[in-house]
Design goal:
By secondary structure, the protein is mainly alpha-helical. The chain has a domain at 30-59. It has helices spanning 5-32, 34-63. The radius of gyration is 22 Å and the shape is flat.
Length: 72
């Protein structure tokens, strides 16, 4: 079943509204609890850094050395 342009537009408008509401809620939460927000941001940054480090180690291991070893 094909969607009309109006249905697609309606979907994107609803998604945009939901995103705007989420951003507003986040801003209010940061204003009310700045220390908690800073802790969450630091934890998220650490998680991303850990994932990047782990991925780099996996890629290094997969490449291996010329002799076939997988020293990291």
């Amino acid at each position: 079943m094909a969607e009309t342009n109006d249905e697609k537009k309606s979907f994107f408008e609803r998604a945009q509204d939901a995103i705007e509401d989420a951003v507003e809620s986040t801003v209010e939460a940061v204003k009310e609890h700045p220390v908690a927000a800073a802790g969450i941001a630091a934890g998220a940054a650490a998680a991303v850094a850990g994932a990047a480090y782990g991925a780099s180690k996996l890629l290094d291991r997969d490449e291996g050395d010329d002799d076939g070893s997988t020293k990291g």
